[in-house]
């Protein structure tokens, strides 16, 4: 059995729906990294129905966190964005940038929006007004939310 190496690429032969389901369990940073595997994989990540961005792990010397989020949201091609989870700090990102993320997500017909807002400096955060009027949004969740202004009346919140 010495020297036997199986070089068959089995994962690329999985049905696309299963592949997208598997990829949707990973952080977006790792999902996008799969685009370097082969030509076939170059655009697979763009159809993943769930995106997760983490401020602490998505840092780059060449691009801001907000720039990364905007670029990847604009490149996303799935007909519906089932879930968008963004972990960020209002200490380093202004409301206009967050409003831009939300606008792009709404254009992608986001169904679940999770904003995990944390602040090392105790900064308060006011949700952009456009957050309050999305027809496709079914669930809005905030995690570890410090001081904020969030006057929701019509959206269900996850406890």
TrEMBL record:
InterPro entries: F-box-like_dom_sf, F-box_dom, FBL60-like. Pfam families: F-box (PF00646). Residues 8-44 form the F-box domain. PANTHER family: RNI-LIKE SUPERFAMILY PROTEIN (PTHR31293). This is F-box domain-containing protein. It comes from Microthlaspi erraticum.
């Amino acid at each position: 059995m010495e020297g036997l190496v199986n070089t068959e690429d089995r994962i690329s032969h999985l049905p696309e729906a299963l592949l997208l389901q598997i990829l949707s369990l990973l952080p977006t940073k790792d999902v996008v990294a799969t685009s370097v595997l082969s030509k076939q994989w170059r655009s697979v990540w763009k159809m993943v129905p769930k995106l997760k961005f983490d401020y602490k792990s998505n840092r780059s010397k060449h691009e801001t966190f907000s720039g990364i989020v905007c670029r990847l949201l604009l490149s996303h091609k799935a007909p519906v964005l089932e879930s968008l989870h963004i972990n960020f700090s209002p200490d380093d990102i202004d409301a206009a940038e967050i409003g831009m993320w939300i606008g792009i997500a709404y254009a992608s017909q986001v169904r679940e929006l999770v904003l995990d807002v944390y602040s090392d400096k105790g900064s308060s955060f006011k949700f952009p007004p456009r957050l309050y009027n999305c027809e496709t949004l079914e669930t809005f969740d905030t995690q570890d939310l410090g001081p904020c202004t969030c006057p929701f009346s019509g959206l269900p919140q996850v406890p």
